[in-house]
């Protein structure tokens, strides 16, 4: 007997979530190896961010497993006709917890990306203010939409409007940060290409664009499914939680391992982690003024002494 469509959707989502969690386990191991094995000062923000995102992904995967075990093995649920479908589409404590973890994971990612944009652009406060304003608007509408879902107004007019606003702000935020960091690194690479002979940050730019594209695509898919009224958008959120974790892990592992490779090939390379922007050369010219006593020697004597000094100068040269 074929499974109903909702069951198939959620089981497919669970398979994808488990697959992505396995990828995250590998990336987390690479991040820890790259961050703690380098003979450089450890940047604790990167390490703590990786640990936090991986912890959220692990907790979400465990709750999701418990949720599916309860939906397909609990006698009180499966004894009811279409009981698994009813349970999967219900607002239970497990689904509320998974939704909260998704919002928390996404908030941490956006704050981390905002911080990186702020650092790459030499601590420009106006950029940080604009990005934090977008983050505030996004998390406010996201929490409001989450509350509406918990209250049972899943596909109401106000829930859909809040979801559209939240997704739009998230897209603007992600695209702006990704483009801002990539452009800044591109400019930095052009400024030092004359010294290195190649674009020093090309690999980092590609990694940032790839991770940003993965996260942006997941946002578009989840928002499209929710706006279309698909009951499988809950499964898409479960998968998206793992993608939110994959984004910073992939970025950290790729960039850090690339730096370790460069340091092994060129040990004399700079230990700087951030982009080294070429500064204009400053030349300080000092004018010295010497005051001599008034020479009372006559003109003929001065001419003789001048010719002797000139001859001595050429002899020395």
Commentary on this structure:
The chain is mainly α and about 325 residues long. It has helices at about 5-35, 45-75, 75-80, 85-90, 95-120, 125-150, 155-195, 200-225, 235-265, 300-315. It has ten helices and no strands. It is globular and about 70 Å long. The N and C termini lie far apart (about 105 Å).
> Biggest sheet, in brief?
none
Shape: globular
Name the poorly predicted regions. 269-289, 291-317
How many helical elements?
10
Rg over CA atoms, rounded to whole Å, is 31 Å
Helix content: over 70%
Beta-strand content bin: under 5%
Set out the fold topology.
Blueprint: H1 5-37, H2 44-73, H3 75-78, H4 83-88, H5 93-120, H6 125-150, H7 157-196, H8 202-227, H9 233-265, H10 299-316
